[in-house]
């Protein structure tokens, strides 16, 4: 039996943690979140398009029934997903192996997401040259979101049903509790596939993430229709978020070591997040700017650009260092960094970026999130929804990671925490 397959106390302790502890409020969260989050998406889009754009307006801004459905939206959504499924399946780019699974195997993944982004860009340029009304995406935001939400529920039901034919070693440790509501929400199967087509990996970086920047472009084109040219604020939001998406796809291989791929099952939580939450809430700043244009001073613009640049530098450098260390700790770029040995045989970084705070990538992420909101000014809270939500999300995610690492590494993790006392913000948190 290989060392990876051999049971040990730490592995048993980690499995026990997953079996007894339920995330996101357990059954109550599994019932409430699939209801509240879709309603939140529709509410935020409606508010961003309203003249007041007030999150506190009462009665709240609610769309009429006819605003929620348009058959064109369904055709666009299904066609978009089909396009990227085709690009995903094409034998282009290299193939990389994921981390070792519980049965000792390693799955193979195509690394061609950046190609999908480039093809999408070429197609959009052709559509613009042909006079396609991309600004119509502004009017289609609500029906597109409704279709994405409905598809998320249908796809999650399919994933839950098919998971009962998966072998036990293919199930996520935290998603096989026997509670159907919770397991549907959190995801039973770790890596659901048809042949070599990995559903979770495909959804993680393809249709929703690239769709986000396409919707942003639609908002920019709508502003051009209304005012003759895009504002500096709109161009900054589009540029910052395009850089973020392009970076994720250029460094696609790094996602194979993330919590979403390695630990979490593929259920409603991730399906909805990938297909509906990301494209329709992460770009709220762009839809807000269509109805609420902002004027930026040269100094303000340079400050915002600098903030985004600093955040991106921290985010990229720390993530690259972590990914390189996980894949090859003997690589010259990480070999000289100080580490702590653990009972699992792995080592923990206590110098470099990961000696500054325990999650320097989260720090960079939050600085960028703030830079995306600042072009929208300070008169409304709505454009700052993303940075507020993302702060809560990353603190919760950090807490999940903290508990998993403590269960996995034991005393070594306590030593690491003493060496690196701050979690995300140096000298603050």
From TrEMBL:
A Gene Ontology cellular-component term: nuclear inner membrane
GO biological process terms held by the UniProt record: cholesterol biosynthetic process
Main location: membrane
Pathway: Steroid biosynthesis; cholesterol biosynthesis
GO molecular function: Delta14-sterol reductase activity
Pfam families: ERG4_ERG24
Transmembrane segments: 24-48, 68-89, 109-128, 140-161, 229-246, 266-284, 296-315, 369-395
Keywords annotated in UniProt: Cholesterol biosynthesis, Cholesterol metabolism, Endoplasmic reticulum, Lipid biosynthesis, Lipid metabolism, Membrane, Oxidoreductase, Steroid biosynthesis, Steroid metabolism, Sterol biosynthesis, Sterol metabolism, Transmembrane, Transmembrane helix
Disulfide bond recorded as keyword: no
The EC number(s) this enzyme carries: 1.3.1.70
Subcellular location: Endomembrane system; Endoplasmic reticulum membrane; Microsome membrane
Entry function: Catalyzes the reduction of the C14-unsaturated bond of lanosterol, as part of the metabolic pathway leading to cholesterol biosynthesis.
Family membership noted in the UniProt record: Belongs to the ERG4/ERG24 family.
Protein's UniProt name: Delta(14)-sterol reductase TM7SF2
Organism (species): Gasterosteus aculeatus aculeatus
């Amino acid at each position: 039996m290989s060392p990876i397959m051999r049971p040990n106390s730490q592995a048993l302790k980690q499995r026990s943690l997953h079996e007894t502890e339920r995330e996101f409020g357990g059954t109550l969260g599994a019932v409430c979140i699939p209801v509240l989050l879709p309603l939140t998406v529709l509410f935020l889009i409606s508010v961003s398009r309203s003249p007041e754009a007030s999150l506190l307006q009462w009665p709240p801004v609610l769309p009429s029934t006819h605003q929620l459905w348009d058959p064109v939206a369904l055709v666009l959504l299904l066609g978009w997903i089909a396009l990227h499924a085709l690009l995903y399946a094409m034998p282009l780019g290299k193939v990389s192996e994921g981390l070792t699974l519980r049965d000792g195997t390693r799955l193979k993944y195509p690394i061609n997401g950046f190609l999908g982004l480039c093809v999408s860009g070429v197609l959009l340029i052709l559509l613009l040259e042909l006079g396609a009304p991309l600004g119509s995406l502004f009017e289609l935001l609500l029906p597109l979101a409704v279709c994405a939400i409905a598809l998320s529920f249908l796809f999650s039901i399919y994933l839950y049903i098919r998971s009962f034919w998966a072998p036990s070693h293919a199930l996520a440790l935290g998603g096989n509790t026997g509670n159907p509501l919770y397991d549907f929400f959190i995801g039973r199967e770790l890596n659901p596939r048809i042949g070599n087509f990995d559903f979770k990996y495909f959804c993680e970086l393809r249709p929703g993430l690239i769709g986000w920047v396409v919707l942003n472009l639609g908002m920019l084109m709508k502003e051009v229709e209304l005012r003759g040219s895009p504002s500096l604020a709109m161009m900054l939001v589009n540029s910052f978020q395009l850089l973020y998406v392009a970076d994720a796809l250029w460094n696609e291989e790094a996602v194979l070591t993330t919590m979403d791929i390695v630990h979490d099952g593929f259920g409603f939580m991730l399906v909805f997040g990938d297909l509906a939450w990301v494209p329709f809430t992460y770009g709220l700043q762009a839809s807000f700017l269509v109805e609420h244009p902002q004027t930026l001073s040269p100094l303000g613009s340079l400050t915002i650009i600098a903030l985004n640049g600093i955040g991106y530098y921290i985010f990229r450098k720390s993530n690259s260092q972590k990914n390189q260390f996980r894949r090859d700790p003997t690589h010259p770029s990480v070999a000289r960094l100080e580490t702590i040995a653990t009972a699992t045989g792995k080592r923990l970084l206590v110098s470099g970026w990961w000696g500054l705070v325990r999650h320097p990538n989260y720090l960079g992420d939050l600085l960028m999130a703030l830079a995306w909101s600042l072009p929208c000014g300070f008169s409304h809270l709505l454009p700052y929804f993303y940075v507020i939500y993302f702060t809560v999300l990353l603190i919760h995610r950090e807490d999940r990671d903290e508990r998993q690492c403590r269960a996995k590494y034991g005393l070594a993790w306590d030593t690491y925490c003493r060496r690196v006392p701050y979690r995300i913000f140096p000298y603050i948190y």
